[in-house]
Amino acid sequence: MLELRDVRLVHNPGTPGEVTALDGLSLSVPKGQFVAIVGSNGAGKSSLIQIVSGTLRPTSGTVVIGGRDVTRQGDHRRARHVARVFDNPHLGSVPELSIEDNMALALRRGGRRGLRPAVTKAHRALMRDRLAMLGLGLETRLSAPVRLLSAGQRQSLTMIMAALTAPEVLLLDEHLAALDPGTQSRVLELTLDLAADLGCTTLMITHNMDHATTVGDRLLVLSGGRLASDLTAESRGALTSDALTTLLAAA
Ligand SMILES: Nc1ncnc2c1ncn2[C@@H]1O[C@H](COP(=O)(O)OP(=O)(O)OP(=O)(O)O)[C@@H](O)[C@H]1O
After folding, report:
1. Which of 32, 151, 200, 245 is most buried, judged by most C-beta within 10 A?
2. Ligand 1 atom nearest to CA at 19
3. Residue 109 — very low, low, confident or very high, per pLDDT cuts 50/70/90?
């Protein structure tokens, strides 16, 4: 369960540049629910993701993950429970390191700094198992440097890495935006498979209206740092991407 209670996020308070990015947002997401989030530019989507990841702390309000109040906990301490994938496929892995070393780094995420446990046989088996899900043959190329992979392959690897520590919450910040349509479909399918396998609570920001109207269990529309609409998959059923575009423009 992920809960935000009356969360406000104000940038540059008390200055002429004061901006309210989140304006008393309350949200409750049951464990395992997959939520798509849309909103116009500046609606507060990335702010919401950063509040949940712990990169930003709210000006007021409370963030609860799995029953624990994590409001004052920084992103490093949350990293074992909260994984985040960015829009840029090149941000999720280290190009000069091998696939195995990148995955080993992901396995250590949120662990104590400085500790470098060796990659065990069990780790390597887990890596191969997860990489095989991609159907790209990467499980036989563990020592290949990540820089040799295409953008789609790298984003697929990033998804696999994000899921390695079985996070409670998976945050996807327009993670398909830089991919071509065919690769988008493949990475989206992988995303849904991983989220279902792990049973993690997932928030996926998207500007793709087709994805917003079809993917996941719930659709949130953000506007001005508030929830303008909160639709279940059932109530979203008849919503076309054109109708959602109109709804967004009016929100
Ligand atoms: N560091 C910052 N300093 C000042 N204002 C900020 C900062 N970060 C975000 N904002 C403002 O907060 C508001 C919400 O921004 P946010 O990035 O969350 O929107 P978004 O919905 O993710 O937009 P986009 O779709 O363009 O990425 C915007 O008005 C933005 O200009």
Report:
1. 200
2. 5
3. confident
Write out the CATH class of domain 29-57+66-250: alpha beta
Domain map (residue ranges) of the chain: 29-57+66-250
Paired residues of 218 in beta bridges: 35, 232
Q: What is the pLDDT of residues 47-79, one digit of tens each?
A: 999 999 999 999 999 999 999 999 999 999 998
- Each residue's pLDDT tens digit, 180-202: 898 899 889 999 999 999 999 99
Name the more confident of 39 and 247: 39
pLDDT of residue 120: 86
Choosing from 47, 57, 227 the residue with most ligand 1 atoms within 8 A of its CB, the one to mutate for a pocket test is: 47
How many whole angstroms from 47 Cα to the centroid of ligand 1? 7
Structure-derived torsion over alpha carbons of residues 7, 77, 130, 177, reported in degrees to the nearest 10: 40
Q: How would you classify the pairing of strands 218-223 and 226-232? A: antiparallel
36, 172, 225 from 235: Cα distances, Å: 14, 23, 23
89, 146 in Cβ contact below 8 A?
Answer: no
Task: State in Å: Cα 173 to ligand 1 middle.
Answer: 13
Residues 75-105 have pLDDT tens digits of 999 988 999 999 988 888 999 999 999 999 9
